[in-house]
Amino acid sequence: MGSKVKTAITPTRAEDYPEWYQQVINASDLAERSPVRGCMVIKPWGYAIWENIVCVLDDMFKETGVKNAYFPLFIPLSFFEKEAQHVEGFATECAVVTHHRLEKGPEGGLVPAGPLTEPLVVRPTSETIIGDSFSKWVSSYRDLPILINQWANVVRWEMRTRMFLRTSEFLWQEGHTAHATKEEAIERTKLMLEVYARMAEDYLAMPVIQGRKTAAERFPGAVDTFCIEAMMQDRKALQAGTSHFLGQNFARASGIKFQSAEESEDYVWTTSWGASTRLIGGLIMTHGDDDGLILPPRVASAHVVLMPIVRKPEDRENVMGYTERLAQRLREKYYHHRKIVVEIDDRDIGGARGWDWIKKGIPLRVEIGPRDIAQDSVFVGRRDKAHNEKVSLKTEQFVAELANILDEIQGNLFARAAAYARDHTLTIEDARTFSDFFTPQNLEKPEIHGGFARSPWCGEEACELKIKENQAVTIRCLPLEQDRESGGHYPLPAA
Amino acid sequence: MGSKVKTAITPTRAEDYPEWYQQVINASDLAERSPVRGCMVIKPWGYAIWENIVCVLDDMFKETGVKNAYFPLFIPLSFFEKEAQHVEGFATECAVVTHHRLEKGPEGGLVPAGPLTEPLVVRPTSETIIGDSFSKWVSSYRDLPILINQWANVVRWEMRTRMFLRTSEFLWQEGHTAHATKEEAIERTKLMLEVYARMAEDYLAMPVIQGRKTAAERFPGAVDTFCIEAMMQDRKALQAGTSHFLGQNFARASGIKFQSAEESEDYVWTTSWGASTRLIGGLIMTHGDDDGLILPPRVASAHVVLMPIVRKPEDRENVMGYTERLAQRLREKYYHHRKIVVEIDDRDIGGARGWDWIKKGIPLRVEIGPRDIAQDSVFVGRRDKAHNEKVSLKTEQFVAELANILDEIQGNLFARAAAYARDHTLTIEDARTFSDFFTPQNLEKPEIHGGFARSPWCGEEACELKIKENQAVTIRCLPLEQDRESGGHYPLPAA
Fold first, then answer.
1. Quick one: which of A16, A303, B31, B442 is 20 to 30 A from A270 by CA?
2. C-beta atoms surrounding A74 within 10 Å
3. Contact B102 A153 (CB under 8 A)
4. Is the CB of residue B224 less than 8 Å from the CB of residue B243?
5. Which CATH number fits the domain that encloses residue A326?
6. What is the ipTM of this complex?
């Protein structure tokens, strides 16, 4: 931005990025804090995005042969302890159920009663409880592969929470598969990573790097963790989905054995993979601007808001009639093509109305007044353009072109995010430049991070730890395309 | 049944109805017990039914203006205590979270650590936590109505559990609405009851009676509870959905106030309504027979299974090719019409293959062998007919007629269930006949209940209690159509 212009969100991204993020969530009515520590209420405008994400991912999963199932919320403590690394990774953040009733306490209020003989852990993830089922479902190679997904809530007691990004309870899906061979399990791990990348890029318009985590950053109990990493507008990375090759670790822990075609007995090879409501956090931080949220059309809660402009009471009938007929035409025309959601907002609140929808990130705002109607045209504002840029379009043209306009917006958002990530990703091959790049005082705007650096790494955990401690820079992943190009590990560190 | 025929399920309904129910679930692979007390694992074949129910209900809700949102799993104890009757109703069956970590105990194993200052209740229902949000969302009549639904898991610690019907954790939806007037809230309560009735009858093919609960059977904290009740094949009633008019009870408890158009301040009027995975239990008990599950096509996990018959290896290529092309044609033809799921089962396990699908309740089994192919026909078994009745149909005709056949099956299942309910519902107006009807030794088969009795009731709770104690008969509901006909309460008692 050049000269200071009034923005709908205070502070701006440049002024205070984390606070801007929170204010966008408030202003767009996506979610609110709940009275339960670390938990959030996902409001309808935010939940609709999640419903769209669920719908897209669910179809993609099913296309690869995955079926949905549902496993208990509670995990007996003894199950949880079966895999040593796993329990170590999650023990410090578990909600534990210890009682199954409430009764009047000595001071009159209710107190927990009916202590359980074995405490139950509210699932932070379900490898151990699902592994128990798998051990009953598998006996022969004919029962394999098992390809299961569950849509569920999970709880990880977080000390520092941020809406959508890190909350004590969150919604996610967790896929769990079991295979007869190591190769097949690795292939599935990578396939699901690609599904996540496709979801992120084609629907959230969020460019990602597919990569492998270092040993230090692996999922507790995994042999190999793959991830997609996206650059946010503070130039930091967001892990937007992970896919784990679990080897035979959890199969051993849960006793998931099978008889091979050659009649030898072996443990199965398992994978797990998850994506969560955190994707919504990524979407906000990838596309939002200083006026609020910007929703990619393919996952938008709604696509078009029609705003009738009635200045004189005698215009009301004409303007409302025109607006409602237009809404009806759009809904009918695009009903089968794609679920395009058209809203009418006839609140009489002046300019606040348009700003409300700008903050909510709806792709298209359409104003309809008596003069527009006289010319059979509408006045269209696109959220991917600077918000003052509105154009008059013939109504016929708008109706005919709507799907194309939305596709164009989707494309623009992706292109813009991709350019941003590209512009802030450097290939840095020497230690000095690397160090300079990540030293805040060397940055143009110290509060905004430098970006991603593609840099070689010796592979030593000591080095990884050193850059993390000295410069708060972490190896986000070892990009997979580098595997292909160079045949070896070529890391991508970034904070 | 006349003479004893071999059935796929042991015991039969007549021999031991509750055990038959459990065996149908096992044989159809719907669900299994979990190692967590009172919780179940919903397996893919069962979960797919739930997905279909969710899809249908969700659309119906949205058509009435309801939007989805998500509220925390945990409810602070202090919130839960806000409504006195409510807490009394649920206090004896609450899972309580008291700690937020695990650490090594004195004996080496993990023990709960990090005690919470205020225990958290795992939601058994969400009136109090959602009420807290509503109190922030509402200030003026312009903010009303609020029409919210949430798809969620809830926990009610049950001592005696039965799969799908009563489990400690279950999946459900809970709708919560707030209104400016009492009349509007009552209208919404009844509207949602009608939505449930439509779901039950038009999709689950399960005829229901819409009615009002007696005071003794009301939801804890409600002013009025409405329900749909269906007759199972043991002639007992199943409550399949409830809709509650909550008056201003929860509004007062959570402080949900609004300023009316006349600028006076008042509490809002709220409703809540829920349906759960229990619907699947109802579906099993309404349609299942002694060979297993029978799925109504509109909520079936899959609709058609194609079973290639390959007796000689040299036939394989021809038969499999024909089968796959047929599957492809069906999938393409019916892709837009309705989501018809076609499976191919080419397992080489003899007659067990057909029986597997009979037990799973798939509407149509199609056998395809070399002789069928030579005549361009297929051999079709319908699950709504006695299972041995298979007919040869020209393949063209089968492809053309598939949707109609499924509709016919749907209609047959409803008609059969409706006839059963009608045949076992008596109007009984005197106490002696009523008493005889519900005395087991007077029944033809003492292990099967007599059915429903439509009988007058004085309205006294003492009477209600007496028939419950003496004859284990409960007033399931005061049917709504009687409201209309007689203008008064005309009860329908049944066990």
1. B31
2. 27
3. no
4. no
5. 3.40.50.800
6. 0.95
